[in-house]
From TrEMBL:
Keywords: DNA-binding, Transcription, Transcription regulation. Gene3D superfamilies: Tetracycline Repressor, domain 2. The keyword Nucleotide-binding does not apply. This is TetR/AcrR family transcriptional regulator. It comes from the Bacteria. PROSITE patterns: HTH_TETR_2. One of its GO terms (molecular function) is DNA binding. Residues 5-65 form the HTH tetR-type domain. InterPro entries: Homeodomain-like_sf (IPR009057), HTH_TetR (IPR001647), Tet_transcr_reg_TetR-rel_C_sf (IPR036271), YxaF_TetR_C (IPR054156). Residues 28-47 bind DNA.
Length: 184
């Protein structure tokens, strides 16, 4: 196997794909190293263990969503009535292109009953998403209704991703995005 020179960020980015597709417990350092085109020793040069790689993967994913998806909810250059649709369009594009579903949803389902190592980062991700959605809905609805609608959007999309993967039919996500756009 050819040894590649990758930055730590490139390794994390590739590791995200492995964790999304295989899960945390079914992934080992050899899998990560192989997917990155590195030896296991070279991989350990950058990371002490799998947990560190996963934490960095969750952090990078969260940062990407904050910058590219959740930020839409706070963008003053976008009219409020367009924000939800724009956010949902980006979300749909990401999850129709990427295999394996939402790394945060997957991680919660896989690990939360066994350990709480990734609980806080997952909780922070979903809270950031909810706050961004609430900022959109608060322009039109009371805080109580905005929170309910925000929770509904997240639940609809996470459920649609599960059904999309289970049945290998992207229409589940497309339908959920369409229905969620009607909530504003």
């Amino acid at each position: 196997m050819p040894i590649q020179k990758l930055t730590k960020e490139e390794i994390i980015l590739r590791s995200i794909t492995v964790f999304r597709q295989k899960g945390y417990y079914r992934t080992n350092m050899s899998d990560l190293a192989k997917f990155c085109g590195l030896t296991k020793g070279a991989f350990y040069h950058h990371f002490a263990n799998k947990e560190e790689v996963m934490k960095k993967s969750l952090e990078m994913t969260s940062n990407w969503f904050n910058e590219n998806v959740f930020s839409i909810g706070y963008d003053d250059n976008i009219p409020n009535h367009e924000k939800l649709g724009k956010m949902l369009d980006v979300y749909q594009k990401v999850f129709l292109q990427e295999q394996g579903g939402c790394i945060f949803g997957n991680t919660v389902l896989e690990t939360i009953m066994v350990e709480d190592t990734f609980k806080q980062s997952s909780k922070d991700f979903f809270e950031a998403w909810e706050k961004s959605l609430m900022n959109i809905f608060n322009a039109k609805y009371s805080n109580k209704i905005a929170k309910e609608k925000s929770t509904q959007v997240i639940a609809n999309l996470q459920g649609a991703i599960i059904l999309m993967i289970l049945n290998t039919q992207s229409q589940y996500l497309k339908d959920a995005v369409h229905k969620n756009k009607e909530l504003y």
